[in-house]
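Hi Y.,

Following your request, here is the sequence exactly as I used it, all 391 residues.
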Amino acid sequence: MGGLEEQLGRDLDAIRDAGLWRELRQVESAQAARITLGGREWINFSSNDYLGLAGHPALGQAAKEAVERFGTGSGASRLVCGSLQPHHELEATLAGWLGAESALAFSSGFAAAQGALTSLLGQGDVVILDKKAHASMIDAAKLSGATLRVFRHNDLGNLEQRLQWAAAQGGRVLVATESLFSMDGDRAPLAGIVELKERYGAWLMLDEAHALGLYGPLGQGLAAIDGLAKRIEIRMGTLGKAVGAAGGFICGSGSLIELLVNKARSFIFSTAPSPAASAAARAGVELIQGGEGESLRAQLWQRVEELRRGVESLGWSAPAGPSSILPLIVGGEAKAMAMMEKLREAGFFIPAIRYPTVARNEARLRVTVSASHTSGDVQGLLDALGQAVTR
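Below is the corresponding structure, written out as C-alpha cells. Let me know if you'd prefer a different format.
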C-alpha cells in the first residue's frame, strides 16, 4: 500500500495523466470585469459577479460600517451568541425581497443545501434530482440517508416516472433542481415540475443561485416570472453571485425556517457568517431591487445579446433563453485547455471547465457575462474566439 506521501503521489499523477490537473491562481485585484494575475491585467469572463456588485462602493461601505460596529468575526454559532443584528437584518430583507414568510442565512450555498436536505429527509424518504443538479444538492441528498433517484435533465416525462415510483414507497418525496443551470445556462421547465410535484404530493427544493438578481420583477428569480414562487416549498439562493457578497440562504415558511434552526447541522455547528459579509449582502439585495439594479440588468442583457449573436455566428449554440452563462463546449479536456491558453494569449481569462464538474468529453469554456463588461470587451472576446477556432 505504501506510506501516505507515496499514495498521494500516485493519486496526483493519475489526475495529471487524465488531463484534470487544477491549481489555484492568485488574483491580485478586486473581483471585476478586469482582474490582475501575475502582474498582468486580464479581461475576466469567468466570474459569477453578474451585476458587478462585488466591488460596488455601497456594499463596501455597508461592510465597513458593520466591521466598525460589530467587529470582524461573529465569535460563535448563531445559537450560542453569534446571532448578530446584521444576520437578522439580512434575513428580513431576503424574506421581503422574495415574498417568503422567513429566511435563514448560511455560510455558503453548499451549507444551505446540506442543511435543508438533511433536515427534511431521512431513511425511508426519496429525493429526486435533476441529472445536472449542483454538487451541493447531490452530496446533501446522499448525506440525508434518503433513497436517491435521478431524472434525465429537464425531462418531465422521466420525472413523472420517478414520482410515480416514489409515491408508492410511503415516505416523504422531494424533488430538487436548479432554475438556471450553472454549467449549461439553460432553464428548468418550472411550471411543469411544479404541476408534477403537486400531482404526486411531493415537495420541491429550487436552487435559484444563478437566477436571483437577474430574472423576474426586482430580480426575484425565475420562479417569480410565472407566479410559481408561492407553490415552491423550499427556495435556495447564494449571496456570492449577483448579490456580490458571500453566503447562502433558504427561504420558505416560518415552520421550515424554525425546523432548520433546530435541525440543520451545517447551521447549528458553524460559526456565524461575518457581520461584514451579511451587511454587504443586505446592501446588495437592496440595490438589486432599486433603479440601479434595473439599469444594471439592462446593461447585462445588452452584453449577453451581443455575445450570443457573436458566438452563434462562430458556430456555437447558445441557451434557448437569455442567459448570462454561455457554455462553449469543445469536447475533450486537452482541447479545452488548448483553447483556454489561446484566449489567455489574447488577454482573456476564461478557465476551462472539465470533468468532474461536467461530464467526460463535455469540457468547455464557461463564458459568463457581467454588467461591467463593455461592448468593446465582448467584441474583443469574439475576435479572440474566432482566431482560436481558425488557428
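The longest strand covers residues 325-331.

Thanks again,
Q.
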